[in-house]
Write a structure and sequence with these properties.
With about 400 residues, the chain is mainly α. About 80% of the residues lie in helices and about 0% in strands. The chain has a single domain, classed as Growth Hormone, Chain: A (Up-down Bundle), CATH 1.20.1250.20. Keywords: Membrane, Transmembrane, Transmembrane helix, Transport.
Length: about 400
């Protein structure tokens, strides 16, 4: 990979990190703090619904695709939304109403909405700027950036919260986001003035809108996997930190072992997973990574049933972090491939909306199972669901290999 492509990959990686960090801290890091404050499993599960704006990414993509703010297009949209997100983070730092769940939900919903909207033009710009052969690598880098955000948001910011108070993490996130906006306005990310010749052709066929996405080859298999590969593994990860707290592990130790350690493991698995997928092909890689997720959840279910020691729990946490990293990298790469020329933002928004529908529903259901039946039943149910996904991946994932050959 030449220096120009490397600079683009790293720039977009930082932008993904800066945009993902607030949501990760609020939805994955804060449950530990909220559990310490006495919030129930159901309340923590309901907090995940603050990510509901991601279901509407398709709606958010429409103005991004249609209107060019000041002639800047995707870049201008990302800059404006990033600025508003930074202001919202500073607002929550000033208020921080942990004792008023409804008010706290409102702040989290606003931040999640702005971060979600900003994600659309950033990803559309990445898809436009990076060549087709770099998309699977870009998916791995994006996934690694999200896991590094998990290291910071699910670990280091929790330590900062414990030592410097609740406002400090939000001020730091606003500063990191400001650096991302500065990078966006620089010349590392190439200009998007070029026109894509496919736009007219797509419009003339009459499938230039959102429904045209479903006219692509193998899209049915991809949509099913898009909605099912990640949410069961993701739900297990959401409840891992509260579980460790319930087992008596100190808050800061959970932050270091699960937040930092799990995040680093997931980032490395993202980079290794995309390399493996490029080597053995998606037909083998997708079922393999899904099987790793089922194994991780089954391990956590068995360990919780046995009431095993801390070391076995950490092994289970490592397995689930590896599965999440490997699955995320492949999925993000495929999302880029299924975004049509001239409809980058629209198709990315549609896929992200479908992904979020299942990702948000499963943690809520898992929280209800947790409150009524306990951790062993919750992890066992998630493992059985993931095993069914493995079967689906074995039956359909080979059809996706041809996608990598498309421009």
């Amino acid at each position: 990979m030449n220096r120009s492509l490397m600079a683009k990959q790293l720039a977009f990686g930082w932008l993904h990190f800066a945009l993902a960090l607030p949501s990760i801290y609020l939805l994955l890091g804060m449950p530990l703090v909220l559990r310490e404050q006495g919030w129930s499993g159901t309340q923590i599960g309901l907090l995940q619904l603050a990510g509901l704006p991601a279901v509407l990414k398709l709606v958010m993509a429409i103005p991004v695709e249609r209107y060019r703010l000041g002639g800047g297009g995707y870049r201008a949209w990302a800059g404006l939304l990033g600025l508003l997100l930074g202001l919202a983070l500073l607002g929550l730092a000033y208020d921080f109403p942990l004792a008023q769940p409804s008010r706290f939900y409102a702040w989290v919903l606003l931040i999640s909405w702005l971060a979600t909207w900003a994600d659309v033009p950033v990803n559309a710009l990445a898809i436009r700027c990076l060549p087709a052969q770099e998309r699977l690598r870009a998916g791995g880098i994006r996934s690694a950036a999200l896991f590094l955000a998990a290291v910071v948001g699910g670990g280091l910011l929790l330590v900062l919260h414990q030592r410097a108070g609740g406002a400090a993490p939000f001020v730091l996130m606003a500063l990191l986001l400001a650096l991302g906006v500065i990078m966006l306005c620089g010349r590392v990310v190439t200009a998007e003035a070029e026109k894509e010749p496919e736009v007219l052709a797509v419009s003339e066929r009459g499938d230039g809108g959102a429904m045209g996405f479903f006219h692509q080859p193998a899209v049915g298999v991809w949509v099913a996997l898009l909605m099912l590969l990640f949410p069961f593994v993701g739900a297990g990860w959401v409840y891992l930190k509260p579980l460790m707290l319930d087992l008596g592990m100190p808050v800061e130790q959970v932050a270091w072992w699960v937040g930092v350690g799990g995040g680093v493991t997931g980032a490395l698995a993202s980079l290794a997973g995309q390399r493996l997928a490029r080597g053995i092909g998606l037909g083998r890689a997708v079922p393999l990574f899904a099987g790793l997720g089922a194994l991780a959840l089954a391990t956590l279910g068995l360990v919780s049933h046995m009431a095993a020691g801390q070391s076995l729990w950490l092994w289970g946490a490592g397995l689930i972090a590896c599965a999440m990293g490997a699955l995320s990298g492949v999925m993000f790469g495929l999302m880029m491939h299924f975004a049509r020329a001239g409809r980058r933002a629209l198709d990315y928004g549609l896929q992200a909306s479908l992904f979020t529908l299942s990702r948000l529903a499963v943690p809520v259901l898992a929280g209800i199972v947790l409150d009524r039946l306990g951790y062993p039943a919750m992890f066992t149910a998630l493992a059985l669901c993931m095993a069914a996904v493995v079967v689906l991946a074995l039956l359909g994932s080979r059809r996706l290999e041809a996608v990598l050959q498309r421009p």
